[in-house]
Amino acid sequence: MEGVIEGFFGKTADGKKSRIPALQDKLQSLSGLILAVFMLCHMIFTGTIIFGKEAFNGVVSFAEPFGIHQITNFIAFVIFIIFLIHAFLAMRKFPANYKAYLAFKAHKIRMKHCDTTLWWFQFLSGFLLFFFASAHLIAIIFGEKIDANLSIARFHQLHIFYILLLIVTVTHASIGTYRLYIKWISIDGVKKEEMISKRHKFKKLNFLIWGCFLAFSIVADIIWLIR
Ligand code: HEM
């Protein structure tokens, strides 16, 4: 009954608003943070190919004690679940119809604010990740033991897919970590000028770190292709 009352009036019977949207926001941020940190580790992992096949296979053996490759399949499954939760929660923020899309577009044009435009990029890259990241994760979950030669073969066959996946992931994750800072950290107990200056500094640092990781991964991708 509570749900029905809230569904009609937007409030519960005792006049309170639901805490669920706030909880959903927290969960979305937390799952996004886990995925962003995972991605930074992942880029170091795939980047080890720069130091040779042995280095890459060494990291795989470290992650799979006693050669149990199902450990990686299982980790990929857990990441997929976190990815699905994150994507499901993010869907709430998508424009629900053409009218909502036009309203956002008009707002974006009028605001001419970098953060609003970044949100739009995050929306588009997030939408693409639904397909790109799902395809990659399903291949890893049901795939055989990871090995440098197998990955080299996959890169040769699917290099356009991997480079697109990389660009879309870095775009999405870098904007995501910047927005996490704006949303949860930058507003706490500081004066407006101080807050704006800290935001600028964090923005530079955030995009510099992701930019370095992207450059490192592009070098790694070239190595994958010439091996
Ligand atoms: C536990 C989960 C994951 C594992 C074990 C894994 C493993 C791998 C492996 C072995 C490669 C080399 C190519 C291949 O053999 O397919 C690769 C490439 C790649 N993966 Fe993943 N992956 C995981 C999750 C993800 C996720 C969630 C994303 C992004 C949303 C992602 C993005 C990429 C990208 C962009 C590449 C291309 C290499 C690069 O440029 O860094 N992976 N992954």
UniProtKB/TrEMBL annotation:
<dbReference type="GO" id="GO:0005886">
    <property type="term" value="C:plasma membrane"/>
</dbReference>
<keyword id="KW-1003">Cell membrane</keyword>
<dbReference type="GO" id="GO:0046872">
    <property type="term" value="F:metal ion binding"/>
</dbReference>
<feature type="binding site" description="axial binding residue">
    <location>
        <position position="42"/>
    </location>
    <ligand>
        <name>heme b</name>
    </ligand>
</feature>
<feature type="transmembrane region" description="Helical">
    <location>
        <begin position="160"/>
        <end position="182"/>
    </location>
</feature>
<keyword id="KW-1133">Transmembrane helix</keyword>
<keyword id="KW-0472">Membrane</keyword>
<dbReference type="InterPro" id="IPR000701">
    <property type="entry name" value="SuccDH_FuR_B_TM-su"/>
</dbReference>
<feature type="transmembrane region" description="Helical">
    <location>
        <begin position="205"/>
        <end position="226"/>
    </location>
</feature>
<feature type="binding site" description="axial binding residue">
    <location>
        <position position="86"/>
    </location>
    <ligand>
        <name>heme b</name>
    </ligand>
</feature>
<comment type="function">
    <text>The fumarate reductase enzyme complex is required for fumarate respiration. This subunit anchors the complex in the membrane and binds a diheme cytochrome b.</text>
</comment>
<keyword id="KW-0479">Metal-binding</keyword>
<protein>
    <recommendedName>
        <fullName>Fumarate reductase cytochrome b subunit</fullName>
    </recommendedName>
</protein>
<feature type="transmembrane region" description="Helical">
    <location>
        <begin position="71"/>
        <end position="91"/>
    </location>
</feature>
<feature type="transmembrane region" description="Helical">
    <location>
        <begin position="27"/>
        <end position="51"/>
    </location>
</feature>
<feature type="binding site" description="axial binding residue">
    <location>
        <position position="136"/>
    </location>
    <ligand>
        <name>heme b</name>
    </ligand>
</feature>
<dbReference type="InterPro" id="IPR034804">
    <property type="entry name" value="SQR/QFR_C/D"/>
</dbReference>
<keyword id="KW-0349">Heme</keyword>
<dbReference type="Pfam" id="PF01127">
    <property type="entry name" value="Sdh_cyt"/>
</dbReference>
<keyword id="KW-0249">Electron transport</keyword>
<dbReference type="GO" id="GO:0006099">
    <property type="term" value="P:tricarboxylic acid cycle"/>
</dbReference>
<keyword id="KW-0408">Iron</keyword>
<feature type="transmembrane region" description="Helical">
    <location>
        <begin position="118"/>
        <end position="140"/>
    </location>
</feature>
<keyword id="KW-0813">Transport</keyword>
<dbReference type="InterPro" id="IPR004224">
    <property type="entry name" value="Fum_red_B_TM"/>
</dbReference>
<feature type="binding site" description="axial binding residue">
    <location>
        <position position="172"/>
    </location>
    <ligand>
        <name>heme b</name>
    </ligand>
</feature>
<keyword id="KW-0816">Tricarboxylic acid cycle</keyword>
<keyword id="KW-0812">Transmembrane</keyword>
